[in-house]
């Protein structure tokens, strides 16, 4: 560990906090429909699509729209992947994707997971990359933010007693505005910045070079920068190239790397501020962000500490430990930035990588695993991290309510049995899926054929795959051979469940809260802005979300660490 | 609520937003990038007498003693820039230890006598295309390269020192040496010193 490394981490945390308000202000304008003259541009689109932008949807209507939009998007993407051979912009003549892989990939991109069982530059045409995958990079991100908006409206609605029922917004309008006025303009700016820093943006698929030693080198190219910009901003994480942002074209240097990490957190951090603004007290938002950052610093510290020490087994074979554990790392990033990125990408549901998580030291691997297993609520995926954290906030006020013996309330709404049950359903769905699927894959032959590593690390590879899929992350312990019928199907089930078994309860909670009367904070209310609340919330995430996974973490990384100390290899 | 009331906006919005984000956006960006930043947009290629010799951002395989050698690579048969890949080996993998052992022995056989070998020189990178070495990993190769080329070790060492990229503001980035650019400088140095 170096002072420089800690300085980088501190700089990053400070910058994240600094982004929250400007980004949150932008998001609040979209949330509140204050788009000014831009609304005129939308009007024609709404007319053709048969959308009444004034109509407030009830939660069931909002949920139906979410599901319909995702279903149509899934079918569209699946068709493109299967048919890419017959479609334009396929200079390398790649064949259509096999059905199992295309199914997995389509689910993966629609659910904002971007788990990749294929290598981008060796499998996909430019057409499939752009109009197939990139479109879902925008739309799955917009879907997540829209659901977060809906939940915020649930908290912020102030229905009068004679009002029949309160809606939670209009999904079509939310998705359109988020895409047109946030994701697209921000991506345009970021694309130009990335190109300036060295990321290619061309329709050429490859160029041939003759190296200094006279060998031939085929260098894959493509419209990388445009995909990269939304991949990070929308916490999608699906790489243009097989090795994702570790590829020098997808992340040429330390500056592009810092911009990528900040853009992963930008919207997630901003949403906490938007929430505070919407409920009339920005300190509520800051409290949520603070709890997230406390958990983030804990995770990144463990990761950096464990990986910077280097691999003692290699040290015993004459390798210097000064640079740390460099297997699967790039020199231009080193250990500090790689550790930071690994923590960021798994806190958010991004899943892009600049270092291979499979080659992290055993204890370092705990941070990405735990980040995903608690449901990626530390900043989190765009929208998804916020609404995931809100579920824990509901549980936290419930626990606090039990302790002091009064009806819990949060930002002016009474939290009752229905909300707590729905929150608990979503919070329980994740471990059931992750641990259930991991257990299944750990005993059947088709599952055991997957891991590259033998011994405890092989189990970690399986556990990581399902943690990543269910949490909609998309990063991998890449040694696992995931492109089999078994893993393509099970991972797709995990990704689907992890996305919609959370979105649906969240929307139901939003609908339930929207109908509740506003209860002003009284002397007996549990304060949800101070240090006590921040600590309670962070503890609830660790205890309710994390403790479930303790045995699996002991079996995987824990056992491997013991082997490492003993000098055992597999 | 009829199903068509939900499917129509879903379909129309998907098509409209797909045209915008999947076609108009990348094509406009490509056009713009090709006009204002053509060098970077096309892969930061290095040309020698019109021929492409590589990309400044992509590592390439160097195996002879005359050149600074880069890191081991898991991409294809080594530095295959059409198929990026990592080893994905666990820290406790026997295959990792065996590979590192062989590389350490090879480096020792080339005349390196320091007590330890820099880690980046015997580990595979995340991309298999890492263009860089740590300064230590470059300096350790100076005597071998200088001998193979008949150059003075001090001259080669000075060249490495000049080639180090330092972190921005001392915080963002790691000290590093781009191997391809260093080796091109080395060729130039040799060319000017031909007897």
From TrEMBL, chain A:
GO cellular component: plasma membrane
Family: Belongs to the KdpA family.
Keyword field contains DNA-binding: no
Listed name of the protein: Potassium-transporting ATPase potassium-binding subunit
Subunit structure and binding partners: The system is composed of three essential subunits: KdpA, KdpB and KdpC.
GO MF: P-type potassium transmembrane transporter activity; potassium ion binding
Matches recorded under InterPro entries: KdpA (IPR004623)
Highest taxon in the source lineage: Bacteria
Topology of this chain in the membrane: Multi-pass membrane protein
Organism field: Sphingomonas oligophenolica
UniProt keyword annotations, A-Z: Cell membrane, Ion transport, Membrane, Potassium, Potassium transport, Transmembrane, Transmembrane helix, Transport
UniProtKB/TrEMBL annotation, chain B:
Compartments, as annotated in UniProt: Cell membrane
UniProt membrane topology term: Single-pass membrane protein
A single GO molecular function term of this UniProt record: P-type potassium transmembrane transporter activity
Record keyword Nucleotide-binding present: yes
Stored Pfam families: KdpC
Organism domain of life: Bacteria
Keywords, comma-separated and alphabetical: ATP-binding, Cell membrane, Ion transport, Membrane, Nucleotide-binding, Potassium, Potassium transport, Transmembrane, Transmembrane helix, Transport
Cellular component annotations (GO), alphabetically ordered: plasma membrane
InterPro entries (alphabetical): KdpC
Subunit structure: The system is composed of three essential subunits: KdpA, KdpB and KdpC.
Family (UniProt): Belongs to the KdpC family.
NCBIfam families on file: kdpC, PRK00315.1
Biological role stated in the UniProt entry: Part of the high-affinity ATP-driven potassium transport (or Kdp) system, which catalyzes the hydrolysis of ATP coupled with the electrogenic transport of potassium into the cytoplasm. This subunit acts as a catalytic chaperone that increases the ATP-binding affinity of the ATP-hydrolyzing subunit KdpB by the formation of a transient KdpB/KdpC/ATP ternary complex.
Protein name as catalogued: Potassium-transporting ATPase KdpC subunit
Organism: Sphingomonas oligophenolica
Gene that this sequence comes from: kdpC
């Amino acid at each position: 560990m170096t002072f420089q490394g800690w300085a980088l981490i501190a700089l990053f945390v400070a910058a994240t906090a600094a982004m929250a308000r400007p980004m949150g202000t932008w998001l609040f304008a979209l949330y509140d429909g204050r788009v000014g003259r831009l609304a005129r541009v939308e009007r024609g689109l709404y007319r053709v699509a048969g959308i009444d932008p004034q109509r407030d949807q009830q939660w069931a209507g909002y949920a139906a729209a979410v599901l319909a939009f995702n279903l149509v998007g899934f079918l569209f993407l699946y068709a493109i992947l299967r048919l890419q051979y017959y479609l334009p912009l396929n200079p390398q003549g790649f064949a259509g994707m096999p059905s199992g892989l295309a199914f997995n990939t389509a689910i993966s991109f629609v659910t904002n997971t971007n788990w990749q069982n294929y290598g981008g530059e060796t499998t996909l045409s430019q057409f499939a990359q752009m109009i197939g995958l990139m479109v879902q990079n925008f739309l799955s991100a917009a879907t997540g933010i829209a659901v977060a908006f809906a939940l915020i409206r649930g908290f912020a609605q102030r229905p009068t007693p004679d009002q029949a029922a309160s809606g939670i917004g209009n999904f079509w309008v939310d998705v359109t505005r988020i895409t047109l006025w946030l994701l697209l303009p921000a991506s345009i700016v970021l694309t130009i910045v990335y190109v300036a820093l060295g990321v290619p943006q061309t329709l050429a698929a490859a160029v041939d070079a003759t190296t200094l030693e006279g060998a031939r080198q085929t260098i894959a190219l493509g419209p990388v920068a445009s995909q990269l910009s939304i991949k990070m901003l929308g916490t999608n994480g699906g790489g243009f190239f097989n090795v994702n942002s570790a590829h020098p074209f997808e992340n040429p240097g330390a500056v592009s790397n810092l911009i990528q990490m900040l853009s992963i957190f930008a919207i997630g951090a901003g949403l906490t501020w938007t929430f505070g603004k919407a409920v009339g007290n920005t300190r509520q938002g800051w409290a949520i962000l603070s709890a997230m950052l406390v958990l983030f610093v804990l995770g990144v510290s463990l990761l950096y500490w464990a990986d910077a020490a280097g691999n003692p087994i290699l040290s015993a074979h004459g390798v210097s430990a000064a640079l740390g554990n460099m297997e699967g790392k790039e020199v231009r990033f080193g250990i500090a930035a790689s550790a930071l990125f690994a923590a960021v990408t798994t806190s958010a549901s991004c899943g892009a990588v600049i270092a291979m998580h499979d080659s992290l030291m055993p204890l370092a691997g705990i941070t990405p695993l735990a980040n995903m297993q608690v449901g990626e609520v530390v900043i989190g995926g765009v929208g998804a991290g916020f609404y995931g954290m809100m579920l824990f906030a509901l549980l936290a006020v419930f626990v606090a309510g039990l302790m002091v013996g009064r009806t819990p309330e949060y930002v002016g709404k009474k939290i009752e049995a229905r909300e707590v049950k729905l929150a608990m359903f979503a919070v329980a769905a994740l471990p059931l899926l992750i641990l259930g699927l991991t257990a299944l894959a750990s005993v059947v032959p088709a599952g055991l054929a997957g891991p590259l590593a033998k011994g405890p690390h092989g189990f970690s590879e399986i556990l990581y795959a399902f943690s990543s899929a269910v949490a909609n992350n998309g990063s991998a312990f890449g040694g696992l051979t995931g492109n089999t019928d078994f893993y393509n199907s099970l991972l797709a089930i995990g990704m689907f469940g992890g996305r919609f078994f959370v979105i649906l309860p969240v929307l139901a909670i939003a609908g339930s809260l929207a109908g509740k009367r506003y209860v002003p904070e009284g002397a007996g209310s549990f304060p949800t802005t101070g240090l006590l609340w921040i600590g309670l919330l962070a503890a609830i995430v660790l205890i309710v979300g994390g403790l479930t996974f303790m045995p699996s973490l002991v079996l995987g990384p824990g056992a491997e660490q013991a082997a490492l100390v003993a000098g055992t290899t597999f | 609520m009829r199903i068509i009331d939900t499917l129509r906006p879903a379909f129309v919005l998907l098509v409209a937003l797909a045209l915008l984000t999947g076609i108009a956006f990348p094509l406009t960006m490509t056009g713009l990038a090709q006009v204002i930043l053509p060098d970077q947009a096309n892969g930061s290629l290095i040309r020698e007498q019109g021929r492409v010799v590589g990309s400044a951002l992509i590592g390439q395989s160097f195996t002879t003693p005359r050149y600074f050698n880069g890191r081991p690579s898991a991409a294809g048969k080594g530095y295959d820039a059409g198929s990026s890949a990592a080893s994905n080996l666990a820290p406790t993998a026997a295959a990792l230890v065996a590979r590192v052992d062989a590389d350490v022995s090879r480096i020792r056989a080339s005349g390196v006598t320091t007590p330890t070998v820099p880690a980046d020189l015997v580990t595979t990178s995340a991309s298999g295309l890492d263009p860089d070495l740590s300064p230590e990993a470059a300096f350790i190769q100076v005597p071998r390269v200088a001998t193979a080329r008949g150059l003075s070790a001090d001259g080669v060492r000075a060249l490495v020192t000049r080639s180090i990229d330092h972190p921005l503001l001392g915080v963002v980035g790691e000290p590093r040496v781009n191997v391809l650019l260093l080796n091109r400088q080395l060729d130039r140095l040799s060319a000017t010193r031909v007897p």
